[in-house]
Amino acid sequence: MYERKILPNLNCGLDLIGEVLYGKWKIRLLWFINQGHQRPSELQRKIPDATRRVLNIQLKELEDHELITKKIYPVVPPKVEYSLTEFGETLIPVISTLGNWGDKNEERLRSVILKRLNSENQ
Fold it and tell me: Where in this chain does the record put each HTH hxlR-type domain (predicted)?
């Protein structure tokens, strides 16, 4: 398992947020769980570019940070569902605001991202 070599800087709110939300799929996972997609297979369908392994790692990290809870039902085959904690629910308005900002600036963001990608590939 991965072992961190450098301890994170936790001196301000932005550092703390980065530590908790750093990960390509975490914000999307929180958003989709809030929308009612609670089973791992549903989340995998919503984020097909992510591998099952990476999703499981990021779900575990969100659980460790007390943003989601995992419920395992004692049935065969096993059934697992994720839900937001009260603490996790407090992030939804923040994620919504970020999404709205992205929507409002979609053309500009897409343009600068593509420009950067094109310059890296030359």
Answer: 12-110
pLDDT, one tens digit per residue, over 40-52 is 999 999 999 999 9
11/99 Cα distance (integer angstroms): 26
47 within 8 A of 59, measured Cβ to Cβ:
no
Spatial contact of 39 and 29, defined as CB atoms under 8 Å apart = no
Q: What does the alpha-carbon distance between residue 82 and residue 71 come to, in Å, rounded to a whole number?
A: 6
User: Could you tell me the CATH number of the domain that includes residue 44?
Assistant: 1.10.10.10
Quick: pLDDT tens for 90-104: 999 999 999 999 999
DSSP 36-70: T--SHHHHHHH-TTS-HHHHHHHHHHHHHTTSEEE
Q: Which residue has the tokens 């059934």?
A: 79
Q: Read off the pTM.
A: 0.86
